[in-house]
């Protein structure tokens, strides 16, 4: 059996990826909304998003809504596949 993906397996990153996986493939969520949903501090969320972004599991897009900066977060195709593989491996492990 393959090892569980260590990038996703960390509790906070698993929560982030699981939350993003509930969105439709092309949907994004704002950083503050994701922070609120996960009840995480901005610094903690940023740190884990950076790790997921380095692995190309999430995309982070910064733009402006009027004059206000806004950050959008989305699961990439690679991230979605990694999460699907992770959950399949976990199911196999639990079913064994």
TrEMBL record:
Domain (Winged helix DNA-binding): residue spans on this chain: 18-93
CDD domains: HTH_ARSR
Superkingdom of the source species: Bacteria
Name of the protein in its database record: Transcriptional regulator
Native species: Microbacterium bandirmense
């Amino acid at each position: 059996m393959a090892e569980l993906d260590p990038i996703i397996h960390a509790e906070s990153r698993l929560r982030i990826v699981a939350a993003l996986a509930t969105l439709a493939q092309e949907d994004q969520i704002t950083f503050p909304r994701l922070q609120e949903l996960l009840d995480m501090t901005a610094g903690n969320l940023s740190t884990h998003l950076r790790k997921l972004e380095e692995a190309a599991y999430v995309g982070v897009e910064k733009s402006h809504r009027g004059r206000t900066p806004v950050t959008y977060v989305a699961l990439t195709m690679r991230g979605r596949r990694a999460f699907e593989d992770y959950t399949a491996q976990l199911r196999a492990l639990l079913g064994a």
